[in-house]
Amino acid sequence: MSDQPRPSRTAAVIPAAGRGVRLGPGAPKALRALGGTPMLVHAVRAMAASRQVSLVVIVAPPDGAPEVRNLLDEHALPERTEFLVVPGGGTRQESVKLGLDALPADIRAVLVHDAARPLVPVDTVDAVVEAVRDGAPAVVPALPLADTVKEVEPGAPGEPEPVLSTPVRSRLRAVQTPQGFDRDTLVRAHERVAVSGEGATDDAGLVEQLGVPVVVVPGHEEAFKVTRPLDLVLAEAVLARRRANDGF
């Protein structure tokens, strides 16, 4: 038996325990159909499409792990990739932590990906992984903003809100996923940074609170988040175009 250490691997964690109420009533957001296939399956395939990702951990609703396992078994997934389903927690932050706890010891780089970003291209996934492997402790894909942004004093829904400032748009980026991390850095962030309420919506934000630098790589317009009904219409159009052009 060789005494050589096993090479380090990269895993993706997909928290899929949220209900996604803004998308309307029905199944949890990650299980909504896109082109006849649940968005979660599209997201899992997007991570597994990268040859640099050898394990995908899906964090299911707390009582929904068997359902998610059955769902994955019903759809074709790459044989070269391992898949693991674990039950999640009450918040996204708790679910990501549970996904991290399930990783084997030889995983050194971790991607965290939103199940609601089902169409992220493999080139974006690879760019994030490569940046982490090149030494960046935290990496996020992002796009420049097209719209001017205003900081406001939040008010009651539907009421006018006073503008406090107008940030310089050229310095702003709309952040996407997968976000990539050195495993030890992300684990430390989840252990040390306490977030109240619904918890953290952005893992890079937790890392920032440790004082660890976060870098941005170019995102992609098709890595948008399916949050509202109109997003689902756009996602259907993108998927139809892919299938027509290259048999995606």
Automatic annotation (TrEMBL):
One of its GO terms (molecular function) is 2-C-methyl-D-erythritol 4-phosphate cytidylyltransferase activity. The record marks R22, K29 as: Transition state stabilizer. The keyword Nucleotidyltransferase applies. Gene3D superfamilies: Spore Coat Polysaccharide Biosynthesis Protein SpsA, Chain A. The record marks R169, K225 as: Positions MEP for the nucleophilic attack. Pathway: Isoprenoid biosynthesis; isopentenyl diphosphate biosynthesis via DXP pathway; isopentenyl diphosphate from 1-deoxy-D-xylulose 5-phosphate: step 2/6. The keyword Transferase applies. It catalyses: 2-C-methyl-D-erythritol 4-phosphate + CTP + H(+) = 4-CDP-2-C-methyl-D-erythritol + diphosphate. NCBIfam families: ispD (TIGR00453). PANTHER family: 2-C-METHYL-D-ERYTHRITOL 4-PHOSPHATE CYTIDYLYLTRANSFERASE, CHLOROPLASTIC. Belongs to the IspD/TarI cytidylyltransferase family. IspD subfamily. Catalyzes the formation of 4-diphosphocytidyl-2-C-methyl-D-erythritol from CTP and 2-C-methyl-D-erythritol 4-phosphate (MEP). This is 2-C-methyl-D-erythritol 4-phosphate cytidylyltransferase. It comes from Streptomyces laculatispora. The lineage of its organism: Bacteria, Bacillati, Actinomycetota, Actinomycetes, Kitasatosporales.
